[in-house]
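Would you mind writing out the residues of a protein together with its fold in token form for me to study?
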Amino acid sequence: MGLKWSALFIAIVGVVCLIFGIMAIMQAGDSEQKVADEIAPIQLSQLDNTYDQASMAYKAVRGTGTQEESTLLLQKTSLGLAKSNIGTINFVRNTAILEIVVGAGLVLASAGLFRQS
């Protein structure tokens, strides 16, 4: 009787992992689209290059106290935040994939325990 309860608990945890993994992947896709919409003229594939260009341009005018310095600093900061958000989204997506794999493994392990008992 104890083995069946353990298998049932493992199956429940596995299903919960699967559900949360799927939800996290869907949320990561939605979040990535929101970031892409926020930086609309810039494509996500061009984000790193655009950030590097803004950073180099800001380094050239840093300390001058001009309006261009403020504009470039704002652009560099915004692009840096977008890069950070994309990195977090990729981490969440990778973690969700791992969670789905673990959940599937737990469900399969519980099925094996049910057969044993």
Observations:
- The mean pLDDT is 90.
- The two ends are 8 Å apart (CA to CA).
